[in-house]
Amino acid sequence: MLVEDDPSIAALVELYLKDAGFRVGHATEGERALQHIRARPPKLVILDIGLDGHLDGFEVCRRLRASSDVPIVLLTARDAEDDRLLGLELGADDYVTKPFSPRELVARVKAILRRAEPARPDASPVLAVGDVEVDVSRREARARGAAVALATREFDLLQFLAEHRGIALSRQQLLDGVWGEGWEGDDRTVDVHVRQLRKKLGDGLPLATVWGVGYRLG
Ligand code: CA
Questions:
Q1: What distance in angstroms lies between residue 52's CA and the mean position of ligand 1's atoms?
Q2: What distance in angstroms lies between residue 90's CA and the mean position of ligand 1's atoms?
Q3: Phi and psi dihedrals of 120, rounded to 5?
Q4: Range of 54's domain?
């Protein structure tokens, strides 16, 4: 689902996505986008921040996250670091900075969808750390037995930390391991997601800040 009010950008993105084999729905306005998404949940949402109508992309993101963990890729303006951080805080999974290459956007979309696919059950144990369980095959996190809704990247980060439990990992190691090498974000991307994990999973998550290094789970 593409939510973008600029017709030329929308047409270009749609063209590249269709070329890559995706079916693409398009809305130029937040309310309509939310209606579409509720009626026919897409596999992924590409969301511009400046939109027609009275809802901006942040508000659409916030409302979507209240009820859905669909992957969201934000389109942000160049040099708008605050926008990117706010977007990640609101649960967006990734962002692409305008002007962007449509090919790059398609590559990001594919990477996110690949990660969101459930892995084969036999290869995927349930990792337990503190009072938190990370069920890799179901892509479900549970705190004290209750399922907790996480955004795609939040789950990826939790899984990566759980797979390396007891080890202090630097922010760069986390960026490389979770977001992939070549990701253009900075250390604060990690901090934002750690904050979300702590908020959502609560005291049962033994996630320590290691001064001068980064983070350690368990
Ligand atoms: Ca726009």
A1: 7
A2: 18
A3: -65, 135
A4: 2-116
